[in-house]
Amino acid sequence: MTKIKCTVAYDGSQFHGYQVQPQKRTVQREIQNALARMHHGSTIKIVASGRTDAGVHAYGQVFHFESPLKIPLERWPRALNSLLPGDIYVRHAEAVPETFHARYDVKQKEYRYRLLTRPEPDLFRRAYTAHVAQPLDLEAMNQAAEAIIGTHDFSCFCAANTDVKDKVRTVFHLSVSREKDDETVIRVVGSGFLYQMVRIITGTLLDVGKHQMAPERIAEIIAGGDRQAASATAPPQGLTLWKVTY
């Protein structure tokens, strides 16, 4: 048996998230279906670095699986892509030690949230950006971001419907920058993220950028640990899991 690590990109628009769900189209189901075809109907379970929600995209999601097939490693991406739908693309495959685990060995993850910042929406970018009609104060947003960087109990930035007890995480980098005249990108790198944490941080930074919340409030919100004190969860379509580092 060979343990194989794959890096995969997907457009999350038409998926009910990453994880297998009964009677629903998910990324994990499509990949496992492709692997089953390659393995003559045998179930091959994949393990990913983590889940993504419905509508969330990935450029650098990572998963591993074990296979008895004697396929040269460089041919695995082409073989899988020939069986996958057009909204999933395996970018890379490599052999890894038996001890490797796509979820438990993660050192850090990078997410990017893309905002369309102009008065009118763009129908052709609506699946990959969140539209913000009013101008944003990027300086204030970056000031607020400074308070989030570091190791904290991020209960305030975690969706209520989670069973996770330990909500301490480390954010290594958080910045807001304009990429194009009408696009702004929030980039966050951390040791790991709580359920909907990046989208709640984004929603809170947006309120700061709209001058609906002072940057100084962020430290108070984190210290208080109250989800209700933070802002609304930003929509999923602007979010992309960009990179997973081991």
From TrEMBL:
**Keyword rRNA-binding in annotation:** no
Residues that, per the record, bind substrate: Y111
Keyword line: Isomerase, tRNA processing
Q: A Gene Ontology biological process annotation?
A: tRNA pseudouridine synthesis
Give the matching InterPro entries.
Answer: PsdUridine_synth_cat_dom_sf (IPR020103), PsdUridine_synth_TruA (IPR001406), PsdUridine_synth_TruA_a/b_dom (IPR020097), PsdUridine_synth_TruA_C (IPR020095), TruA/RsuA/RluB/E/F_N (IPR020094)
Catalytic reaction equation(s)? uridine(38/39/40) in tRNA = pseudouridine(38/39/40) in tRNA
Q: Where is the active site?
A: D53 (nucleophile)
Q: Which domain of life is it from?
A: Bacteria
Mind telling me which Pfam families this protein's record contains? PseudoU_synth_1
**What EC number(s) does this enzyme carry?**
5.4.99.12
Positions of the Pseudouridine synthase I TruA alpha/beta domain: 8-105, 144-246
Q: Which GO terms describe its molecular function?
A: RNA binding; tRNA pseudouridine(38-40) synthase activity
Give the top-level enzyme category.
Answer: isomerase
- In the UniProt record, does the keyword Signal occur? no
Q: What does this protein do?
A: Formation of pseudouridine at positions 38, 39 and 40 in the anticodon stem and loop of transfer RNAs.
Question: Per its UniProt record, what NCBIfam families does this chain match?
Answer: hisT_truA
Q: Which family does it belong to?
A: Belongs to the tRNA pseudouridine synthase TruA family.
Q: How does the record describe its quaternary structure? A: Homodimer.
Descriptive protein name: tRNA pseudouridine synthase A
What is the source species? Sporolactobacillus inulinus CASD
Its ancestry begins with:
Bacteria, Bacillati, Bacillota, Bacilli, Bacillales
Q: Which gene encodes it?
A: truA
